[in-house]
Design brief:
The protein is mainly α and about 325 residues long. The chain has 16 helices and four strands. It has a single domain, classed as Farnesyl Diphosphate Synthase (Orthogonal Bundle). The strands form two sheets. It has a two-stranded antiparallel ribbon. A two-stranded antiparallel sheet has the order 3-4.
Length: about 325
Amino acid sequence: MSHKIPGALEHYRLPIDSYMTELFQSKHHELYEMMRHQLGWEEGSLTYPGKYIRPSLMLVSVEGCGGDVDKALPGAAALELLHNFSLIHDDIQDDSVLRRGRPTVWNNWSKSQAINAGDGMYAISRLTLLDLLDKGIPHDRVIAAARFLDETCLALCEGQYNDLLFEDQLTVSLAEYDNMITNKTASVFKCAFEMGAVIAEGSGTRSKALGILGLELGLAYQIVDDILDIWGDSETGKQIGIDLRRGKKSLPIVYGLNNSSSDQYSKLKSIYQSSAENRDVDEIKNILDVMKAKEYCLIEAKNHWNRAKVLLDGIEMPKDSMESILLSGQYLLERMK
């Protein structure tokens, strides 16, 4: 079942849409057509954009720290572009033919050209961030934001490296899994909250606390994504079960392969010791159901979200901004229902 995006996130869609449209409207080389496709353009207009979760949360942070949302838009756009650059490359590495229910960039063009599009989008992300200077954001805050963006990009690369590495490893510990999703997913949420605060008021105790809050929310988000990859439906726009065949070590699988006390453990281990083409998705799901892997993952996601809420209680912010974060987090956690 799909859920309506809360007003806390939807509130920022129009300004982000407008900024992204203006950013790409005058770029006519086919390289940018590939980027526009990734961002949701169809027949010359931005028709199927993403949910803008990360840039919207960044703008929530900006507003909560007393900043000007309009002045912070280049930072929000830069973060969305960084996220999409990573998705273009992820789709190439994972051989994914669909993204948000549409053909992936490499599927429409080629893997070689999609690499160019991803690299170009990363460059535009960095250039867009520098537009904060034109909006009157102080130089030291822009430099700090640029550092966050680059550190996040490096973390993404480390996380993706491990994600690919773990496909060929039977044994992946829960700690290794946590480290992988911290880099690959949660680091972007951390960047959203911390960078938003820094753009608004500079570095300090509040920006660091918001960064940790974002990290916990990002961890919860990824665990829910892991659940949807196995127990989701077509409305999510995901290719359900493809990660099981590839050998992706999502949390349900990591939990199952570390649960040697279960009478289902040997069956699951045997499946993952066999070649990918021999893996039966329904059989894996049935084993995980018996092991109650979904229930375990839900508890883990809720634990991370509860830690985020505790952190939020200790951060001085206007009530409206705190409510926006709470509603956004609840939405992200409840996507599997």
